[in-house]
Amino acid sequence: MLLSSMNSTIYLKLLKVFLFSFIIILPLRSLCQINNVGLERISAYGKVWGVINYFHPEMGKGKLNGDSLFLKHLSYLPENPSAINFKRSVAGMLGELHDPQISITEKYTSTDEMKLTARKQYAYHLLPGKQLYLALPQTAFAKGLNTDSILRRSPSQKIVVDLRNADLNNDLGLKQYKRFVQPLIAGIIHDMMLLPTERSFFYKGLMRQDFPQDINLFDPDKDGNVDHLQVHNGLRNVSEGAYLLPVDVENYSSYRYCFIINRFTNINSVKAIMALRNRNRCLVVFDGPVPDYLYGTFYYMNLPDGLVAKIRTSEVIYEDGTLGPAPDLVISGQSDTTLHSLSVVSAGNLLKMPIKLKHGHVENTVLVRKPSNKYATNGMPGVNLRLLGLFNFWNTIHFFSPNKNLIALDWDTALLHFIPKFLAADHEDKYFMALMELTASIKDGHAILINTVTGRSPSGFMDGNLPFACDQIDDKVYITSIMPDSAQHAILSQLNYGDELIAIDGLPVRSIINKWEPLLPASNAAGFKRELYATWLTAGAVNSEAKITLVRNGRQKNINLKRINRNDYYNLWGKVIRPVSVPAIFPPVCRILDGNIGYLRMNRIYTNQLDSLANLLRDCKKIIVDARGYPRDGSIGTNLATYIASKTDTVSYDEFPFVTGPNLSKRQMMIDYSVIAPKPNPNLKHQQYYILVDEGNQSQGEWNIIALQGVTKAVTIGRTTAGANGMAVTVTLPGNYTTFFSGFGEYYTDHIPNQKNGVKIDIEVKKTLKAAINGEDDIFNKALSIIKEK
């Protein structure tokens, strides 16, 4: 009995421990082991937020903060993505917009499924209340009905005008508008009446998320152009415009009108009638469901659990700057078209009462966007902030990247892959690696991840490098630079140039390369290798020790080295002592070489030097333009091309996503052509040019080459460039991180894209181990040999 009691006591204690542990562990398990349905719900929440954040008009009025909206209603969804929590979170976001036209429902029933009836013929009756009832359906105009004289003989000053139609017929609907509605309203108004117009966001590409708070959109550039800031920051709106002018032939303004319309009434008639109602000059009865276009454009999103979200993406603005009136009365669809129907009786009753004046709140004249938050956090961002960053990046790429087709990962389902990683990223190193994989996934060399405080890596994690660098040549990795790190001089003396690197800490080099492939931002293999061998192959924590496995003359050797601070690593790279003394890789920025060959290092000169440089090189028949590296002067390529060009020519074009709503099937591309016009200076025209390029050319560095190629029959010599062009657009991320993406597509005039491909190359120069070890400029040497052969 005692034993049984003791066992019971122990059992109860163990049960309490188990239950307590279960309570503690459950949220952690739910964060990391959410099933696919839960992931779909979290993903859908982020997608709904993206549509609201970028397209709902309320976000353009400066009253709501998109990040706060996201965080406030995410609530417990990451811990418990149940159907109830999901619906509550989405409904909470929509509720913050105070928009009666948007909703989250179990099922969306299209109004096209709801049948309405209407009169088929013209009707003219006096109602019991002495109002004139005038029915003019569109079918009455099939035989050329003309209604100019109808109102002149009206026995009443109060008129019910029934414009309901039984179906949509654009031809008859326009006749109904042109022959009756337009002349009638033109005779009522006394001055020009602007018809309601939709207002929505217009993105030419994406506004960078870190633009200044005090940006002046009317600050001209050096050429007097005030459009450049609006283009580069996406600060534009789009709307349409139409109007009606008064006519003096007939004056119908002395009558009072109540129009009966339905969803089959022609849109021109509806807009004109609602504009007249906005002037308080008529009444409106809407029979049946009101069409969306009366309030704006709406986007319907299918969500998990059979839900559908209806989200506004534009609003209708009236001439007085307000959102305008709603119909005076909306009733359910009527099948009764007699004089005793609810629609007709209600219209007659409305005419017995004075018109209620409609005064709406005057809206902003334009939609604006504010700079993104800097996401200031103390330490690691919490799970909700991490998800905000993930969804901000995903939506940005989804809506605005012109190169989304180059992403290997299915972007529509990419969130299901990344959400678990960001939920589990509860330490700085995990979060950093999740961000690395996210930004690298778009296969864009612009998408470099930067920590604005610590640089490329967090402090204490991946912030150091072993003091040597490598190159991959013929599928093998060789040591080609040994840094003069005085603290490890003795150990480094055991390394030789040309040693083959086999492994680091026992991990084969091929495995290290495979590990970094999904983590480094690159448009192509050339960009990936540049990133890998310049920074990441030997990366690790500062002062951490690593065992290096080498092969020299067929024999394997191990050496232990410590990682040094990355800034020191970069600085020491410029002080590397080569085993063989060779001429300087780069001659001065401009000089005349033996054989009267001109040399110009484009990315180290400035536009204001071009006159003097052109004068220096004027007698050179052949000129090498060394375009390698990133330019110090952002306009040097364009300006140099104007000196070289002998006629005006188009050298390339840019494609910008033209985005006015979330429906990407309606997205178009706007094209801007890059035209070079010649400068009168004759000194650089008609020479033969040789352009040097390599993997260090990216973005502006690639455009410069394209500009030169477009104005001269140059020979381009070198290696594949990085293939990342088109304005680096900033995306901010929590935890002091920033990344970028290519905001527009750059194309040659023959429609070949620069993105991923790099610039066109006529003569390829492959790396050799000898040149890499000795620091020889094999591309420059190849150009000289080609010139001397001719």
From TrEMBL:
GO molecular function: serine-type peptidase activity
SUPFAM superfamilies: ClpP/crotonase (SSF52096)
Domain of life: Bacteria
Domain Tail specific protease: from-to ranges: 596-765
Keywords, sorted A to Z: Hydrolase, Protease
Signal sequence range: none
GO biological processes: proteolysis
Identification of the protein by name: C-terminal processing protease CtpA/Prc
